[in-house]
């Protein structure tokens, strides 16, 4: 693709018509030694995977179903930072290409008018406590029409086209994402997570919102106030208690 201005991201780029999941395709390539920046894109996924064991609706030609092979030289506990970085890259690229007012819900759902347009799934393979590779899966509902959504998704999911009324060029958006990602990944390697965290907070629709989250003692709620240096969401539950939420989901109240 001659519109792609990156050095590393997409140096190997494969487009597949149909596959079960680009996560598995990328994992196979990574196991065979695919370099960092390898990108696998599918027109359709027959078994698209979401977070927390969910399915991901991936109809033919209507979205960006893509997985990136990353080889960060860092311990496993840093990979949640990479998840947030990926969300920032995608959010910035969507804003740049479409002008839509998308925001990030912690940890990394991209929302438009309270509905989800994009999800991110980061999977890491660890050996002897060292990360061998990460697969960053990005699913963006680009040109899905409202009536194409299955009934159960209609209230919670939307697409860029459904929100803007215009068909969005997927190749240009992919190029923008890979460029944003490469820039942020370099910034992260040089300056650490702090600059990424501020970018994330600026795009977040979760900060300054009342949220409900799960703990071992049941549901709790509070005001989301920011990210801690590891990427956990800090929630003020009152009486001076700030609780870090490390994994799972939060509900906006
Ligand atoms: C979520 O929000 O639950 C994460 C969704 C991630 C979907 C993408 S689409 C490309 C890649 N392949 C998959 O099977 N899943 C991810």
Automatic annotation (TrEMBL):
Known EC number: 6.3.4.15
GO CC annotations on file: cytoplasm
Gene Ontology biological-process annotations: protein lipoylation; regulation of DNA-templated transcription
Residues noted as binding biotin in the record, renumbered to the chain: 45, 116
Presence of the UniProt keyword Oxidoreductase in the record: no
Function, in words: Acts both as a biotin--[acetyl-CoA-carboxylase] ligase and a repressor.
Protein's name according to its UniProt entry: Bifunctional ligase/repressor BirA
Gene this protein is translated from: birA
Residues of the whole record sequence present: 71 to 323 of 323
